[in-house]
């Protein structure tokens, strides 16, 4: 049976235990606060990131992994006896991470086969896709089958988020400055989404409560779900939001976890994210 390793990056927001359980390799991005730089998950835990984010007057920034970091992960898979790697990365529309993975795949192509793919997603949207692909790989699927499944999952995977304000998104260049200013002046609590792998405005709501209800209604009114996850960036009202979803049904159990530093850098404290994968 062909053994294929799935490799992703730390924007997937999978815990170290879950990644290890599924045999997934995770290449970390870096987080910067001013002159200080940290490797995600190694130098800075998610809890430490949010504590620092709340205390710091400097907004954090992210940096994509180098091609060398991906190359090391790919060659490590070869040394462990895998026959090939399926690399699934954070959306190329918001990060150079996919470019680094592609460059690394080309660098090792004469020694080891690597299929580098752009998920067009982020946080647990990417994470849920990785879990499904890892399960298929463990069952013996070949690279062509895995790539085909990724292409099926991309249009079925949605990511939405309630953000406290647009300051982090505007500073990081992830959404237009004019909309950030308008949201600030009108005290709007925006709902954002991903469109073709890029952050876009989904809805403007006057209060956070209305934003959360909008997001809950979006989930409850969705087509039948295969997988669903909720992530949050130190949101004190996460339990209130989860309580709105008592009637939510999906093929796999609901996952609730913390929003990691990579995406959290661009959305800020208080973010609540929803990631959904619909059934075929």
List the SSEs and their pairings.
Layout: E1 4-9, H1 16-21, E2 25-27, E3 30-33, E4 36-39, H2 46-55, E5 61-63, H3 67-79, E6 84-89, H4 97-107, E7 113-118, H5 123-138, H6 143-153, E8 157-162, H7 167-171, H8 177-185, E9 189-195, E10 198-205, H9 208-220, E11 225-232, H10 238-243, E12 255-258, H11 261-267, E13 272-278
Parallel strand pairs: 1-2, 1-6, 6-7, 11-12
Antiparallel strand pairs: 3-4, 3-5, 8-9, 8-13, 9-10, 11-13
Helix pairs in contact: 3-4, 5-6
Strand content: 25-35%
Q: Indicate the CATH class of the largest domain.
A: Alpha Beta
End-to-end span in angstroms? 26 Å
- Gross CATH architecture of the largest domain: 3-Layer(aba) Sandwich
Helix content: 25-40%
Low-confidence stretches: none
Number of helix segments? 11
How many structural domains does the protein architecture include?
Answer: 2
What is the CATH third-level topology name of the largest domain?
A: Rossmann fold
What is the average of the pLDDT values?
91
Q: How does this structure look, described?
A:
This protein is α/β, with parallel strands linked by helices and 280 residues long. It folds into two domains: 4-155, 3-Layer(aba) Sandwich (Rossmann fold); 156-278, Hypothetical Protein Tm841, Chain: A,domain 3. The protein is built from eleven helices and 13 strands. It has helices at residues 16-21, 46-55, 67-79, 97-107, 123-138, 143-153, 167-171, 177-185, 208-220, 238-243, 261-267, and strands at residues 4-9, 25-27, 30-33, 36-39, 61-63, 84-89, 113-118, 157-162, 189-195, 198-205, 225-232, 255-258, 272-278. The chain has a six-stranded mixed sheet, with helices on both faces. A four-stranded parallel sheet has the order 2-1-6-7, with helices on both faces. β1 (4-9), α1 (16-21) and β2 form a beta-alpha-beta unit. α3 (67-79) packs across α4 and α5 (123-138) runs antiparallel to α6 (143-153). The longest helix is centred in the middle third of the chain and has 16 residues, at 123-138. The chain is globular and about 55 Å long. The two termini are 26 Å apart. The model has no long low-confidence stretch (mean pLDDT 91).
């Amino acid at each position: 049976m062909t053994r294929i390793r799935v490799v992703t990056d730390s924007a997937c927001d999978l815990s170290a235990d879950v990644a290890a359980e599924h045999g997934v390799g995770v290449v970390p991005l870096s987080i910067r606060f001013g002159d200080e730089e940290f490797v995600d998950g190694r130098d800075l835990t998610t809890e430490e990131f949010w504590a620092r984010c709340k205390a710091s007057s400097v907004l954090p920034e992210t940096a994509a992994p180098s091609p060398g970091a991906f190359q090391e992960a790919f060659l490590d898979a070869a040394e462990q006896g895998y026959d090939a790697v399926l690399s699934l990365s954070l959306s190329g529309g918001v990060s150079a991470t996919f470019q680094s993975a592609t460059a690394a795949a080309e660098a090792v192509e004469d020694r080891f086969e690597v299929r580098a793919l752009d998920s067009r997603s982020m946080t647990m949207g990417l994470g849920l896709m990785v879990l499904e692909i890892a399960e298929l790989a463990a069952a013996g699927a070949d690279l062509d089958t895995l790539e085909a499944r990724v292409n099926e999952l991309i249009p079925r995977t949605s990511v939405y988020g309630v953000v406290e304000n647009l300051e982090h998104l505007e500073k990081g260049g992830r959404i237009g400055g004019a909309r950030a200013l308008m949201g600030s002046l009108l005290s709007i609590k925006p709902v954002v989404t991903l469109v073709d792998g890029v952050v876009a405005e989904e809805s403007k709501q006057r209060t956070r409560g209305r934003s959360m209800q909008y997001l809950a209604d979006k989930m409850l009114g969705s087509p039948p779900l295969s997988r669903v996850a909720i992530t949050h960036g130190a949101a004190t009202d996460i339990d209130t939001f989860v309580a709105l979803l008592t009637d939510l049904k999906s093929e796999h159990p609901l996952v609730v976890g913390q929003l990691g530093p990579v995406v959290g850098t661009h959305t800020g404290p208080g973010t609540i994210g929803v990631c959904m994968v619909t059934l075929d």
